[in-house]
Input
Amino acid sequence: MHAARSRQKHTSRLSRSKSSSRSRSEAFLGIFSRMAALSTYSLRARYIFPIDRPPIRDGSITISQGRIVAVGCEPNGECHDFGDVAVLPGLINAHTHLEFSRLARPLGRPGMSFPDWLREVIRWRDATPPQDWDADRDSAIRQGLEVSRRCGTTTIGEIARLPWRGIEQRYESMQGVAFLELLGLASARYDELFGAASEYVEARRGKALSPHAGLSPHALYTASPKLVESVAALSARTRTPVAMHIAETREELELLREGSGPFREFLDELGAWHPDLVPLRSTALDYLKLLAKADRSLIIHGNYLSPHEIEFAGRQSERMSVIYCARTHAYFGHDRYPLREMLDAGVNVALGTDSRASNPDLNMLSELRFAARHHQDIPLETILRLATSHAATALGMAATLGTLTPGKQGDFIVLPVSPHEPADPHELLFDSAQSVQQVFRSGAQIHTTNI
Ligand SMILES: [Zn+2]
Output
């Protein structure tokens, strides 16, 4: 208590105020937003979690012109003491589809078969008149971005639907990668889809546009091997990341192996099955090998990757990542997720929420806490990396994001923590129901509550 009081003498009174009036919060937001671009300031917290080194007790982070310039125990310049809080990197959601962000609850019911859930998705889409599709989608994306920001997610790996023109406006405030979704198995669709992919990437090449361009042949059952191969070559040539849903369900692997089963029935219903385009006895490994030729690839889900396929992904971990969507995995009642096996094999596993069509919210802190509860054999320190350093690597943004390291962008979040001192400080983040109090991007405060 005494130490805290003497520290307070040297710090901003604003930061210690317990008043939660709206005008005070707004004033605080304004001060940090304005000072961010120009000035140097430090924040002091009970714990700083840099990720690339152990947590620092009574630590500080110093920001100058939007970048981190120091992390440690000695603040530089004006220091705002935030008291009993943890400061950690802005969270990164490596996989979502924001177009579903207006759903009040997931579609279908827990434990349902995946093809049946896809039927629900189609029914939901068909319920909206075509003339309202664009406005509905844009409004859902805005809502998803706003909610993500408030929950401490500063960077997103988003699956963006065609058309690609207008993506900068649609995702105006988003930092991350907009993976253009390429969906269509028929050979007649190949030219159209690959043409759109090439135009999208070329139009943005060499330009510092946000979000960055990415490509997403949707899944094994909706994108032909020829399209995946061409996209991987385009990715290698233009240094564009590629995301693809792979080994999400047993039914999907049965379709590849046998050309039959519930997925086949579903595709037949839609008139979308093209047996000549998916060679019989294919495996997920065939697609992993195609994607290994890309500059960078994200294997979305990987729920049913075999040990051999996990080893393969582990050997490519600098350029290939697997994205674990923990609560979506649980929603469908899949077999135990092989997270331990993946991490042991050196796979770069990152965390994503997937969409509101299979997850109750887009909160990455909830996703992290859920993953920790369901994988108690994995240290909390490792779990935290799945939504920070590993996720930055997955999206190809590790040079600037994912850890609190001098030289990187000033993206961080402030989380209130309880006053007790657990043996592992990470428990303060995970054994807690506290939500994010403040969010900073490039040193500017972009969200605050209860100051
Ligand atoms: Zn997805």
Q: What stands out?
A: The pocket of zinc ion is lined by residues 95, 97, 159, 245, 300, 354 (CB under 6 Å). The first strand starts at residue 40 and ends at 48.
